[in-house]
Amino acid sequence: MQLLCSLDTLPTDTSKGFQLNDISLLAVNKHDNIHVYLNQCPHRGVPLEWQPDQFLDLDKNFIQCATHGALFRIEDGECIAGPCPGEMLTSIPTKIDQGQIWVNLPST
Ligand code: FES
């Protein structure tokens, strides 16, 4: 596994973008549960954020694609509204250990 960041740099109800081994990732802390996905919309394959580290909708209930507004559940990355319903963000396995977030990146 690879170190992503310290848990305290990702407060609850925030999101953050990362570049690790040339792979673009996003991480969301929802109620102190950490979810990490590839930063790639399943609709067109583009990055999701509308500004750096801004991946959530206004109510912070969903991950929202900036391009066409698809909404993805934070918990499992499934698209529930927009142009690609039922499609999934690619989930990245994570582990929290001693206050650090670790990720298991896909092999390239
Ligand atoms: S590229 Fe994300 S909704 Fe179209």
UniProtKB/TrEMBL annotation:
UniProtKB keywords: 2Fe-2S, Iron, Iron-sulfur, Metal-binding
Gene Ontology MF, one: 2 iron, 2 sulfur cluster binding
UniProt entry tagged with the keyword Transmembrane helix: no
Stretches assigned to the Rieske domain: 2-103
Keyword Transferase part of the UniProt annotation: no
Coiled-coil annotated residue ranges, if any: none
Stored Gene3D superfamilies: Rieske [2Fe-2S] iron-sulphur domain
InterPro entries attached to this UniProt entry: Rieske_2Fe-2S, Rieske_2Fe-2S_sf
UniProt-listed Pfam families: Rieske
Protein name: Rieske 2Fe-2S family protein
